[in-house]
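Board work, copied verbatim: enoyl-CoA hydratase
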Amino acid sequence: MSDNVVARRSAAAGIDVCTLKRPPANALGLPIIEGLQAALDEAADAKVVVISSEVPGFFAAGADIKHMSTVDAKSFTEYGDKLRGVLDRLAAADKITIAAVDGLALGGGLELAMACALRVGSASAKFGLPEVKLGLIPGAGGTQRLPRLVGRGRALDIMLTGRQVPAEEAHAMGLIDRLVPAGTAEKAALELAAELVTASLPAQRAVIRTVDAAFDLPLDQGFRYEVEQEQELFESGEAREGLTAFLEKRPPKFA
Ligand SMILES: CCCCCCCCCCCCC[C@H](O)CC(=O)SCCNC(=O)CCNC(=O)[C@H](O)C(C)(C)COP(=O)(O)OP(=O)(O)OC[C@H]1O[C@@H](n2cnc3c(N)ncnc32)[C@H](O)[C@@H]1OP(=O)(O)O
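↓ predict structure ↓
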């Protein structure tokens, strides 16, 4: 069982924060993987989940090099499956996930941030996929998620050099969605969460699914998928509640 390296707390109605606290670098070893799984279980009722870090200077420095250096191929594969498993759970979560990055997000740490729906980075954050410097490639979704966020050329630049990308450059290329002053990423992520939590979560999740489908479907099929998602929401009652609330000049009561 994890040794309490991920702390979950309710920050406000519908908003939970899962804070990584595995010094010295929040290496994403089994304790953090299990801790994140448990925290997401506890955050079942949240509409928005913020992932943050209390380890100074680090969001997460990546997969656990110390662990990887001691295992055989079978255990390495199993470890990778567990790490990808929790990141894919974040990506597919029936809630909105936000990575709040104040420090270094490297390797699996950046892959964790990219598995979230949105990323808030502070001026003190840096981002990178330095796996090639270890004779590896990003193996927890980075080769798939980074090009979708920043484009092929910038993704290759980052992955082939393994360099650290400063927050301002990361924001300019679309790797992070909001750039905030140093040390304020969690506070800013909670402010963003407060904006998000007033809207329809089923509608927001449908937006994410539909935008993600755009990268895999031909345009005409993407348009059809968008219509299908709209129909589902309309039939679910979410749209009826949203439209009615607007006309009755009251806050909507979404699912
Ligand atoms: C066999 C068949 C396989 C089939 C397919 C299977 C797929 C399996 C996929 C596996 C999952 C991979 C996922 C991911 O993509 C891979 C990775 O993330 S690899 C790691 C990437 N990260 C890095 O390379 C960063 C490494 N760290 C650094 O470069 C530096 O630490 C730093 C961040 C630049 C900071 O440097 P300094 O300020 O000098 O500090 P230190 O270096 O002294 O670090 C302080 C302290 O922290 C420890 N530490 C840092 N990073 C890690 C880490 N990633 N893992 C473990 N520990 C780390 C460092 O050792 C120091 O500890 P101390 O010496 O003080 O005990």
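The radius of gyration is 19 Å.
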